[in-house]
């Protein structure tokens, strides 16, 4: 990465720090092991031919052919022919530097409440509305982007070294990594026009939302269920079922459930919240989502001491990992990387400790390039582009056009609500 790219990342991190200080100070019948959404999926299993068609649409050609090996029906023969034709027209994306990564924060359900709240300017700067996000998805799909989870892109060889494992897609398709930060539904966001938690239902993963009148609804009120619904009607927007990465902290609990023992006590309520959160996690993983650490306390790992990084990482491991499971992905809070543009050195104590804890994929923030990645035998480092009010404003005024390959900002931005 060029040095200027790194500096842009640090500058953005600085802006995010100011906002986050406010965050921190604001601070069968389904069973616990079988979420309703998982049971619902199991009860609606597709026929072998229908599953083969879905696998084909999502670029899993070997699995698709295997499902219909012994099917000699007219439809199966036609699908086999189509699959073989597609296999001959693939492009392998084997350059770790060419995978673009877009990330979002919680989506705004009610712009009026969000933008007129005490933290209204922060929401304008760092969030997008549901309406804006829906338009972005439509344009991303039209441009041929396909969602790929970053953990799929690395594997270990026989020597235990990390190697890059790029995906193959038809000509005209481009891999895209998607992530969402702070999927915790923090206390400071209550009554500000955002969803309040993720829930597993018989109709899939949804959000709970409490409107301005205090009425509670369950529906598609944030990124996860919106992407899920989009892929139902556009299955080729997903590579082999991949959706995205959810980056979570721990100080207000996980996914809207107040699970932190250190903050809320080791109580019966905390245990119930933990059980519910685990149900949702199981459903999310079954649905193509994965998890990343975003630190426990939204810690700036660049400026913090080694001791503080260790303390925070251990707390995440103790309070969050038992809920979301182990992950090899670390998404840096504030985008503040622990290394510079030259990469991680052997004497970097923070890197050594984080690697010891199992982290192999490190993701910062850098909006100076449409994509950037660094692959070594020890780690894969990837840059993410923040999609938010700041980035859209920069695009419109001509100071940064990094969003142009993904969507037309002037067509997706909700200027009416943002300019009130």
Automatic annotation (TrEMBL):
<feature type="domain" description="NodB homology">
    <location>
        <begin position="275"/>
        <end position="336"/>
    </location>
</feature>
<dbReference type="Pfam" id="PF01522">
    <property type="entry name" value="Polysacc_deac_1"/>
</dbReference>
<dbReference type="InterPro" id="IPR051398">
    <property type="entry name" value="Polysacch_Deacetylase"/>
</dbReference>
<dbReference type="GO" id="GO:0005576">
    <property type="term" value="C:extracellular region"/>
</dbReference>
<dbReference type="GO" id="GO:0005975">
    <property type="term" value="P:carbohydrate metabolic process"/>
</dbReference>
<feature type="signal peptide">
    <location>
        <begin position="1"/>
        <end position="25"/>
    </location>
</feature>
<keyword id="KW-0732">Signal</keyword>
<dbReference type="GO" id="GO:0016810">
    <property type="term" value="F:hydrolase activity, acting on carbon-nitrogen (but not peptide) bonds"/>
</dbReference>
<dbReference type="InterPro" id="IPR002509">
    <property type="entry name" value="NODB_dom"/>
</dbReference>
<dbReference type="InterPro" id="IPR011330">
    <property type="entry name" value="Glyco_hydro/deAcase_b/a-brl"/>
</dbReference>
<protein>
    <recommendedName>
        <fullName>NodB homology domain-containing protein</fullName>
    </recommendedName>
</protein>
């Amino acid at each position: 990465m060029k040095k200027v790219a790194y500096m842009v990342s640090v500058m953005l991190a600085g802006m995010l720090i100011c906002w986050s200080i406010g965050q921190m100070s604001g601070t069968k019948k389904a069973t616990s092991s079988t979420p309703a959404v998982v049971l619902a999926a199991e009860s609606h299993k597709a026929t072998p031919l229908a599953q083969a068609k879905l696998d084909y649409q999502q670029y899993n050609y070997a699995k698709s052919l295997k499902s219909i090996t012994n099917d000699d029906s007219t439809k199966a023969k036609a699908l086999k022919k189509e699959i073989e034709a597609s296999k001959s027209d693939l492009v392998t994306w084997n350059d770790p530097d060419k995978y673009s990564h877009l990330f979002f924060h919680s989506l705004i359900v009610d712009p009026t409440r969000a933008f007129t709240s005490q933290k209204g300017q922060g929401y304008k700067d760092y969030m997008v509305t549901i309406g804006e996000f829906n338009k972005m998805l439509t344009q991303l799909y039209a441009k041929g982007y396909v969602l790929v989870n970053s953990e799929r892109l690395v594997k270990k060889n026989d020597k235990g070294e990390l190697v890059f494992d790029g995906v193959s897609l038809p000509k005209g398709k481009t891999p895209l990594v998607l992530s969402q930060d702070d999927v915790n539904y923090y206390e400071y966001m209550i009554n500000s026009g955002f969803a309040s938690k993720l829930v597993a239902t018989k109709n899939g993963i949804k959000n709970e939302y409490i409107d301005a009148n205090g009425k509670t609804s369950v529906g598609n009120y944030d990124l996860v269920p919106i992407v899920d619904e989009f892929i139902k009607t556009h299955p080729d927007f997903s590579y082999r079922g991949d959706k995205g990465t959810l980056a979570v902290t721990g100080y207000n609990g996980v996914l809207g459930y107040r699970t932190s023992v250190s903050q809320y006590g080791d109580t019966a309520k905390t245990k119930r919240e933990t059980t519910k959160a685990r149900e949702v996690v199981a459903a999310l993983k079954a649905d193509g989502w994965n998890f990343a650490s975003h630190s426990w306390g939204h810690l700036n790992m660049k400026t913090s001491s080694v001791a503080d990084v260790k303390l925070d990482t251990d707390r995440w491991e103790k309070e969050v990992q038992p809920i979301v499971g182990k992950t090899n992905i670390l998404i840096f809070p504030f985008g503040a990387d622990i290394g510079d543009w030259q990469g991680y050195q052997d004497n970097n104590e923070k890197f050594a400790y984080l690697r010891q804890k199992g982290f192999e994929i490190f993701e910062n923030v850098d909006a100076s390039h449409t994509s950037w990645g660094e692959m070594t035998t020890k780690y894969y480092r990837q840059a993410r582009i923040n999609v938010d009010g700041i980035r859209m404003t920069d695009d419109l005024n001509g100071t940064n056009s990094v969003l142009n390959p993904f969507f037309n900002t002037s067509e997706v931005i909700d200027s009416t609500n943002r300019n009130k």
